[in-house]
Specification:
79 residues, alpha+beta, two-stranded antiparallel sheet, 2 helices, 41% helix, globular
Length: 79
């Protein structure tokens, strides 16, 4: 089944490139994806990005089948 999920993930990434332009890196490993942005973003801006990305994916999938979460790593000085 891992092959199918990676195929779906590759299809999603290929069709959402406009959302990934400001990233330094993006990729998939099994069922997990990662995006590393070029600059520091606030939690609000990450949430706004994730919502737009999720809406695009929902249009591709024809429904709200996939779930997206995010984690942020902060500098120790900002904790």
């Amino acid at each position: 089944m891992a092959g199918r999920s990676s195929t779906v993930g590759a299809y999603i990434l290929d069709n959402t490139k406009s959302h990934l332009r400001k990233t330094k890196y993006y990729g998939l490993y099994r069922d997990d994806g990662i995006s590393v942005f070029n600059n520091k973003l606030s939690s609000y801006n990450i949430l706004k990005w994730r919502t737009k990305f999720k809406n695009s994916v929902n249009r591709l999938a024809g429904g709200n089948y996939l779930q997206f979460t995010y984690s942020m790593w902060l500098d120790k000085s900002r904790r």
